[in-house]
Sequence to fold (384 residues):
Amino acid sequence: MKITRVDQFAPRNRTRLIRISTDTGIEGWAESTLEGKPQSVPAAIDEFAEYLMGKDPLRIEHHWQQMYRSSFFRGGAHNMSAIAAINAALWDIAGKHHGVPSYMLMGGNVRDKIRVYAHWGIRDLSDEGLEASRERLTMLQKKGYTAYKAGPAGTWRAHEPPSRIDEFVKAAYTMREWVGDDVELCFDFHGKMTPGLAVEVCNEIKGMRPMFVEEPVPQENPDALKRIQEQVSFPLASGERLLSRWEFREVIEKQAVSLLQPDVAHCGGPSELKRIANYAEVYYQHIMPHCAIGPLALAACMLVDAVVPNFLIQEQVDAGLGEGLLKKPWEVKDGHIDLWDTPGLGVEVDEAEATKEYDGEAYGYHKELGGEYYYENDGSVADW
Ligand SMILES: [Mg+2]
Fold:
């Protein structure tokens, strides 16, 4: 079998796809979306496509090594997202070639279904805000979700007045009151806080027993994370912006957090996600792969979730279940997604939809994430 084509598509604002074709007619699909950088990954994939042409797609590890090591400059979000998409598409091809779900080629599944959490929270304590939150919760409860993630809304400065902190803390405790004690609740700080503020806020919410707090500070400094984890009694999580084992190394070896969130679409693909999970197992850390994009990225996450023992829970978003993009979207039942039994990554792409070109207004440099962020009081740059 030989690779004959690598095609790329941009059917939606936040969706980039690749399709790798072979001379046997088998095709592999994957997602190459890098949020906020819609043009860069496609260019990187075009460069790798020159290498892939005519190669055997089943030599997945060989190609990973080639793409990662041979062009001298390594790593980086664009490069690793390009490698990730190609790697996932090759796993799809391999499963289809052997006639088995791709997870059977990774040692076989160690679980039958994948526990997922939904995005839900209370962001606005006004009557209308509470009503909207209540409606969404009811809808999600009907699907049987048993875990939800929220985040403090808006920008956070180095310190905020008690009123701002109290508003978030009150929302957190209200969420607990609404869902009861059998449901897990977690919060994503999106790396917007300083270590001191993060500790203060975490200690304020510890009484409502969060499952974890994610990215209390940005990802670059594992010592800062470790310092926060040592002062907080519940698990912290990080890793959606870390790429490859080498960027996870300090977080794992310093045991800076309890839970790791590699993003399969950015960390180097399913091959690298599995290696990160195996590495983390030594330190009793669990993985909860980040997935805030589409249904093919979710499939690539679940490929690894299925085969590693130290998997805890999978992120997914409403738009990421594949409505309108997959012939059969992923279905959440009782808070889980059943493993597929079809060959490959378990997705059948609706080609008519997937190959459409998105031409909406938001296409372009970093506008996919909503534009530019500044502190209102002084106009200085704020984190997303
Ligand atoms: Mg996050």
User: Anything to note?
Assistant: Residues 104-343 form a domain with the TIM Barrel fold (CATH 3.20.20.120). The radius of gyration is 21 Å. The mean pLDDT is 94. The first strand starts at residue 3 and ends at 12.
